[in-house]
Design brief:
The chain has 2 domains: 113 residues, 3-Layer(aba) Sandwich (Rossmann fold), CATH 3.40.50; 186 residues, Dihydrodipicolinate Reductase, domain 2 (2-Layer Sandwich). The longest helix has 20 residues. α3 runs parallel beside α4. The chain has 10 helices and 17 strands. The chain has 349 residues and is of the alpha/beta class. The strands form 3 sheets. A 9-stranded mixed beta sheet has the order 16-13-12-11-7-10-9-8-17. Strands 3-2-1-4-5-6 form a 6-stranded parallel beta sheet, with helices on both faces. Strands 14-15 form a two-stranded antiparallel sheet. The chain is 35% helix and 29% strand.
Length: 349
């Protein structure tokens, strides 16, 4: 960090919250109960939501988030506003040397995301991005096991994020709202950024944006990632499968269940009904200590403000996620793969 911004240290953190929608109310609940946080102010244009939040927490209420940032003495701000408002709020906070936790996606466009990146680098003020799945205990355990060498080579990563259409989302489609989660997770699992992307999209219900996407990501190592994201599935599904040389991990984000299936000798198939060959590996349910991912994420952000360390999911990760979502949409429009190899030169690794 540059001398323009200094870690807060051990004093109680003064935090503001922008946005009281579904995610904003979750942030309100967790921040309001955090022992190291004083929720100083909240901002939302909806009078009823704002009144309820201020009455419950004692925080000052604002209808204009820029006024809140200008008038409140804040160490940090959590932004859970609509995606199209992210850039203006983040830039105002960074200009006043206020640390930012931005709900994903970091911005609606690559150019807006880059503006946040440049402002953060210029000021030295940290920007964390709320890719909350990175803080899911099952995901963190999976990452630890990969670091321990359970899979010497990753062959494929398949992610499914599906459910019914959320009425709260109007400004973006599934690529920006959902796939940004998964391109981030797939890159984190592969321990590298993809070099090529391809996608197909569809719009099946009365929305202005795509509500279905199938995407493919190719990594320099040879690993392949596949994304299935949609707002058409009648029940919520959040699943991840990682296949490698020694076996396969299967993860359910919602139940925080993680299993590992060891590869077996394929020369000795088991017959089903005497005719259908299958190869059964040993399946182990791995221990995961359950926790609320959002609470873990906010603990991480508090530590960033106190110590000045790099956020677990930082501004560069946020920019990459938006850039990859944009590339997938570009591929779907053109019907051709998109080369991602020049993105690193634009905003770093």
């Amino acid at each position: 960090m540059t001398p323009d911004w200094q870690p807060v240290g051990e004093s109680q953190l003064r935090i503001g919250l922008v946005g009281l929608g579904v995610m904003g109310r979750n942030h309100l609940r967790v921040l309001g109960a955090h022992p190291d946080v004083e929720l100083v102010s909240v901002a939302d244009p909806a009078p009823e939501a704002l009144a309820a939040a201020t009455e419950a927490t004692g925080a000052a209420g604002y209808t204009d988030p820029l006024a809140m940032i200008a008038e409140s003495e804040l160490d940090a701000v959590v932004v859970a506003a609509p995606t199209t408002a992210h850039a203006a709020i983040a830039l105002a906070a960074l200009d006043r040397r206020i640390a930012v936790l931005m709900e994903k996606p970091i911005a609606a466009t690559v150019d807006e995301a880059l503006a946040i990146l440049h402002a953060s680098r210029l000021s030295g003020v940290p920007v964390a991005v709320g890719h909350v799945e990175r803080f899911n205990p099952a995901v963190r355990e999976l990452g630890r096991l990969l670091d321990d060498g359970w899979l010497s080579t990753v062959y494929s990563i398949v992610s499914r994020r599906a459910g019914p259409f959320p009425a709260r989302i109007r400004d973006v489609g599934v690529a920006v709202d959902l796939a940004t989660h998964d391109v981030d997770i797939l890159s984190w699992i592969a321990r590298e950024r993809p070099v090529r992307a391809y996608a197909e999209i569809a719009r099946r219900v009365a929305t202005d944006h795509e509500d279905l996407m199938f995407g493919l990501l190719h990594f320099h190592s040879g690993a392949v990632g596949m994304l299935d994201v949609n707002w058409l599935t009648p029940t919520k599904r959040r699943q991840l499968v990682v296949v490698g040389e020694e076996g396969m991990f299967e993860l359910d984000y919602l139940s925080q269940r993680l299993t590992y299936t060891e590869s077996r000798d394929t020369t000795n198939p088991k017959l089903l009904g005497g005719y259908a060959p299958t190869f059964e590996g040993d399946v182990a349910v791995l221990p995961v200590t359950a926790a609320e991912p959002l609470a873990v994420e906010l603990d991480d952000f508090v530590d960033v403000i106190r110590t000045g360390r790099r956020p677990t999911v930082d501004v560069v990760d946020g920019v990459w996620a938006v850039a990859m979502a944009d590339a997938l949409l570009s591929s779907a429009r053109s019907g051709r793969p998109v080369d991602l190899s020049d993105l690193s030169s634009r905003f770093g690794s």
